[in-house]
Amino acid sequence: DGGITQSPKYLFRKEGQNVTLSCEQNLNHDAMYWYRQDPGQGLRLIYYSQIVNDFQKGDIAEGYSVSREKKESFPLTVTSAQKNPTAFYLCASSRSRDPVQPQHFGDGTRLSIL
Amino acid sequence: AQTVTQSQPEMSVQEAETVTLSCTYDTSESDYYLFWYKQPPSRQMILVIRQEAYKQQNATENRFSVNFQKAAKSFSLKISDSQLGDAAMYFCAYRSAYSGYALNFGKGTSLLVTP
Fold first, then answer.
1. From the CA of B21, how many Å to the nearest CA of chain A?
2. B interface mutation test: which of A29, A54, A98, A103 has the most B CBs within 10 A?
């Protein structure tokens, strides 16, 4: 079945440590997105990519980095510069030039501070 | 940037009854898309319904329908014959037709369904 796989489901970060969240899709979608969800805040856009080797900052990109070396993969690194990383992270994908098509979401990764 | 406002943090409905969730948005664009997503306790985001701004007809998906008022920038979701499985967080989202295609989400409405 086609879909989006996020791993790990739970992740813990120590102070000063970078951690990477994985997102893989087999839907043949060009566009991929990372959102952060905090209680009472809804989902906020961190980064997005419409094609391989290209990505743009979203509303809350500070302290995060991404890469898009393959169409199927869009990993998110939470750097030590992100002082409040505890949140639920959702990855999504969609067709790049067809905005009526909905975004498909992964099951999310919950990141906590040790 | 476009903002999406869901003014009801929590709503409650009895099983088999009808409930309406509110959503308003702010934009200067003429072409865009609107979505309602459902997030149950499993945290998975599930598309409920979508609406193209250029269409005057309100979208309908089984028990779910919208009331889209473009001039008022309002996009409410009506759930008919509510079921226990409808209990979830509901998010309204805006998507520009011009660039990026990322979603702007509201803060969500928590829907409780009582027997």
1. 15
2. A103
The tokens for B16 are 């088999």
What does residue B85 show for φ and ψ, rounded to 5 degrees?
-70, -5
Residue type, A51: I
Rounded to 5 degrees, what are φ and ψ at B95? Answer: -135, 125
All residues of chain A having their beta carbon less than 8 Å from the beta carbon of residue B88 are none
On whether any CB of chain A is under 8 Å from the CB of B18, the answer is no
Q: Which residues in chain A touch residue B108, judged by CB atoms under 8 angstroms apart?
A: 42
Per-residue pLDDT of chain B (115 residues; tens, 9 = 90+): 689 999 999 999 999 999 999 999 999 998 899 999 999 999 999 999 999 999 989 999 999 999 999 999 999 999 999 999 999 999 999 998 887 678 999 999 999 999 9
